[in-house]
Each structure stands twice: as C-alpha cells, then as structure tokens.
Amino acid sequence: MQSFSTRSSIPSTSIPEALQNARKFPTSGFDIIQSNQMVEEEELPDYEADRFYPVRLGEIFENRYQVVTKLGFDLTNNQYVALKIYVHTSLFHREVPVYNHINQHLHTSTHRGRHNIRRLLDSFRVSSQGGTHAVLVSVPAQMSLRDMKLVFRKDGFDEMFVKGAITELLQAVDFLHTQGKIVHTDIHPGNMLLGTWDDQSLKALEDKELVSPVPRKPVSSTRTIYLSRLMHPRVGPMLLSDFGEAWIGSQLHGGDIMHLEYRAPETLLYISWSYPVDIWSIGLTAWDLLEPKKLFTARDEDDDLYDAAHLAQIIAALGPPPPELLKRNPARTNDFWNNDGKWLDLAPIPDDRTMESLESRLSDKSGFLRFIRRALTWLPEERATAQELLQDPWLAG
C-alpha cells in the first residue's frame, strides 16, 4: 500500500469554485529518474506496478482530497490529513472495522492512552485499471521511529527518548487492552509514528514542493513515481498506527500473527494467544529503539531464517522454556524438543546472545534489563501487563 497526505480543494462552496482553488504544481524544474533505477515502492520484494493505484500529484479524490507531494491539507476541516491507499489485491480489510470499534471508546473514554492512537478520519474506495482500492484517511504524522532511527540514529536513541516513547506506547496499549479489548498483534518501531503538535513542519514540506519539486520517475503515460522528501523530525506525540492485523475480543485467539522477529513464543509454538503477545512486542521494541543490534533476528549464523533459529536465540536470552509451556501443544513442540524437554539441536543455541552481552549502550543496564525481562517471558501469563510496566522503576526513573 501507499501512504500520502492530501490537501482538500473543496470548501463548503460549489465543486467548480472549489476546483479553482486547488493547488497548481510546477510542470518543470524537477529531476527525472532513469527507467533502470528502482525507487520507492519498486524496491519492495513483491512489487507489481498494476497492484498500486497510480497516484498523481495534484489529483483530487472524493471532490475533497488533493494530493500535494506526500503531504497536504484538508481545507474543509482546516487540517492536514494522510491517505493510505491499499493495493487492489488486498481483499480483506480489518482496519476499518477495528477503527469503528476503537472510535466508540475514543469518544467516551478519559484514558490518557487515547491520545497515542492514530485516528482514522474517513475511508472510501477508488478505482484504477487494475481494480478497486480501499483508502483510509488518518491524522498526519512525521515519520516512523524505525525510519527515524535508520536515518538519524543508527546506533540507537538516547535512553530518555526510549523511556518516553515506550511510556506513550504502553499508554496506547493499555487503552487498547482495557478499554477496547483489542490485541494489536503488530507492534514494532515501524508502526510507532512521531506525530505533530502543530502544522509547521507539514506546511514546510508543502511549500517546498511548489518551489523545488521532488524528483520523479515517469513509468508510463498514467503512472509516475514521486520520491519522498526527507523530513527533519520535530517534537511530537508517539502514535500507535496500523490496525490491519488487530483482533477484537479478550478471548484466546489462534492463527499466524506478528512481525517476523517480534513473534512471541506462543505464536511460534502454535498456542492460543491474547494480550500478552503485545507485551512481548513492547519489550523487543524497547530493545530495538535503544540498541543498534536486534535481540532476536530469527536467523542462524549463516543468515538462514527459520523458527528453530528463532527459538534457539530465545533460549540463549531467557534460558530453556518451562515444561508447562511445551505440554500445551506437543504436536508442535516435539519438532524442537524431545519428550524429556531436551533441545533437538535443529539450530545451535548461540552462546554470545545473552541480554547482558548484547546490551551495549548503558553504563547501568540493570534497570533496563529488569524491565525487558518483565515483558519477555516464556509463559504469557507471567508477562507484566501494560499498566504494570508503566509503574516499572526503569521508566519511572
């Protein structure tokens, strides 16, 4: 899917008058990217051009939303908004129903975590030659913490920044778990967005497009790919986003979930899961924001990716799993352990991947590692809740 922000061109006047007020963008003065250079969505491993909606700079959706680079403004409500346009092959969309459920609580709850949920403002569908695309309109944000780390802080964020981000993430998750009865299932730094307190940085991007348009790659007469513009982050709230994999209900669920390296033991072992999978992800998210190297890569020393390598790394960090956990699904656990609970060595247990050896940033690591161990436990019922983690001395300190 693609993410764009848009500027509305339709005030409460007639449509023709509104279209006269739409932005007009330069038709020259930009660099042309050569056809043999892969950029933006073309770099995705499963990219197929006709799956994506061919967004055009200046295009107007729903007689309301005008695309202005990848940022814009809703003139009707006098605010910037963001569009997420799904590929047309996305047949089942969980996000809108989940947001409809969340919105019931966002409007009535006084929980502080409601301010750390990225809000959905509107949704509709558009058609292309390939098919029909679902479109979600949300509040805007600057960039994800994953991208922010990749561009600006490759060695990891400062401890105080991590504490603040994780505090706001825990507030959002506590709201989801206690108010909305929702399991997010896809928590990682890529779904943590740096929001905005004001429109100054967003307006700056819009203004730049008018005087210095971004480079673009003409793919065909109907498709052009525009480069994203680097945005220098400003202070803002942390927003938990992307509810496309969320599940509603406090009961136990089943099925394959979670971002690859963030999978909790119960998902790897095909055991029913619930709220604690989000706590596991929060622990790994805190680690990844602070540290340059991941705690779990799910790969062996030859860089081969498989579940046994993932489980071996968890054993290295947490010690062997309790027998009680292995008994919950013997048909699966017997693939990795014998009947006596002995590891079958389908992947070597690395001796250099303990938490103590991998943590490299802190002079006093005891409080941070104690926090991580409250979130990362083999047994899901032994993990702290979001509310309990909010009271942890490492965060409070």
Automatic annotation (TrEMBL):
Question: Which EC number(s) does the record attach to this protein?
Answer: 2.7.11.1
Question: GO MF annotations for this entry?
Answer: ATP binding; protein serine/threonine kinase activity
Any one biological process term the GO annotation gives: spliceosomal complex assembly
GO CC annotation terms, alphabetical? cytoplasm; nucleus
Q: Name one Pfam family in it.
A: Pkinase
Keywords assigned by UniProt, alphabetized: ATP-binding, Kinase, Nucleotide-binding, Serine/threonine-protein kinase, Transferase
Looking at the record's lineage, which domain of life comes first?
Eukaryota
Report domain Protein kinase positions: 19-395
Its UniProt entry gives the catalysed reaction(s) as:
L-seryl-[protein] + ATP = O-phospho-L-seryl-[protein] + ADP + H(+); L-threonyl-[protein] + ATP = O-phospho-L-threonyl-[protein] + ADP + H(+)
User: By what name is this protein known?
Assistant: non-specific serine/threonine protein kinase
